[in-house]
Amino acid sequence: MDEIKEQIVDYLSRKKFITLATSTQKGEPLTHALAYVNKGPTLYVSTSIQTRKVKNIQENPNVAYSIHDETEYLDEIRSIQMEGKATIISNNEESEKAIKMLKQKFSSMANMPSDPDNIIIKITPKVCYFLDYTKKFGQRDKVEY
To answer: What is the mean pLDDT of the chain?
Structure first.
């Protein structure tokens, strides 16, 4: 299973965007396209504290996200379907490290002025389904964290 965990981290490290799913207090799902950085299987995203995703996370920290390769062929599908817990980072040191990583990964962020409303959300994995149809059609490994 450690080999699959390494493949997951490698996959995360090579991608830039996730589709994050949150749910409202009434249980209505919403998705959000976000840029991210990862440290191992843990993700960090930057967003405004005013967003719906932040309100949803404050009410229900359970989230899910997916990432996939663009392909025209079913036997080339590679994808991550991750379930996790989102927390708003209040630790300034961890927040500053995440911002630095984001600026390194996304050069356009380096020139953006700081915004007091921006926060960092940390997404800690619980369960991951790693799909790799290049190995075998329908190949799906489940990893728990």
So the answer is: 94
The CATH number assigned to the domain holding 136 equals 2.30.110.10
Q: How far is CA 96 from CA 17, 46, 116, 119, in A?
A: 20, 11, 13, 10
All residues at 6 or more sequence positions from 131 whose CB lies less than 8 Å from its CB, including other chains: 77, 78, 79, 80, 81, 139, 140
Q: pLDDT tens-digit profile of 45-85? A: 999 999 999 999 999 999 999 999 999 999 999 999 999 99
Q: How far is CA 32 from CA 12, 29, 97, 121, in A?
A: 17, 10, 23, 13
For residue 91, what pLDDT is reported? 84
Number of domains in the chain: 1
Domain holding 71, by residue range, is: 2-144
pLDDT above 80 (res 112): no
